[in-house]
Structures are given as C-alpha cells and as structure tokens.
Amino acid sequence: MTDIRKDKPALLIIDMVKDYFDESHQIPLTQMAKAVITPLNRLIAVFRDQDWPIVFSTDSFKIEDFFFTSKMKPHAITGTPGAEVIDELDKTPRDYWLPKPRMSAFFKTGLETWLKERQVTLCAVAGIATPYCVLTTVLDALNHDFKAVLLEDCSAAASQKAHENTLDTYRRNVLYPLLRVLPSAELAAELKGE
To answer: Could you give the domains of the chain?
Structure first.
C-alpha cells in the first residue's frame, strides 16, 4: 500500500449525462450505470466535506462528429439537455462542469492546467464507460503527471464482464502505485488517514 494522505485529490466524474440514462434510448450501459449513482454520491460527499475539487466532465459532441460515422448514434449533443449531468448526482454550482469533445477529460479541455492551479496530485476517476472514457481519462491523468485511481464501484460498462476485464487489466500493473484500482470507500479512508 502507498501513503496517499500527502496527495491532493480531485474527483473526476465522467459522462454521467442524461442521454445515457434515458430508457427510451435503449443503451445497454444504462442499467449498469444506475448502480454507481449511490456510491458516487457518497464519495462526492467525502470530497465536498474535505473541500477537494470535483469535476463533472461530460461528452459534448457536435451532430456531425467524427465518432458518429461509426456504429455510434448521435447523443450528448452540445447544448442539449441530453448532454447535461443527471439530476440524481449531487452536483453543486461550485463543482466544475467540463464538457469534453472526445473520450478523455484531458483532451483539448484545459483540465491539466485547472488541476495544477489547484495543486492536485491525484485524480480519482469514476463514471462511464469503464473501458472507454473512464480508462482514457485515467491514462491521460498519468500522461499529465498525476497519480490516478480507477474507482471500481463508481464506474460501469455496458456489461459486468467488460467492466471487470478492464479493472483486472490494471489491478496489477507496472505503474503501481501511480495507477491503482480501488473501491471508493477504501480510497476515502486512505485519503483521510483512517
């Protein structure tokens, strides 16, 4: 185990937007994603109590986006309600809402600068989908010289298997302790020195 009490964390919550939770869209991810709302709200409360930064980074696509030339159907279009953070999450005006044009919250968003201005040294990453936007944000955190924690109970994928496969790939890795996979309660306890 590594002592992370000296780190200043930020919670990066990825793509918890209304379009992914709209049952009429019939997205396989929806049911799995609903399960992370409660543990994520518990962790948000811990970060808020400690006055640590909370970032909601969300897909914000243009209708003619390159990604929509694939099997992916248009969603989370910039300026639409579908690209907004779901109401079930405890988001306040003091949290940072960061729309993103691609998978990683770091891609062309200025997030690195924003975090470094706040002396952040560790990014705790949660949200959807574990093997895509969550993982690319975790890896980009490392690429920008931040420690990273992939939060196993606060992230989801289209299937439990896809989620677990991603977690298992990074549970034991050569970048430990810079990159860790942890449940949110364990991270919170370590950060608070419990």
So the answer is: 9-192 (3.40.50.850)
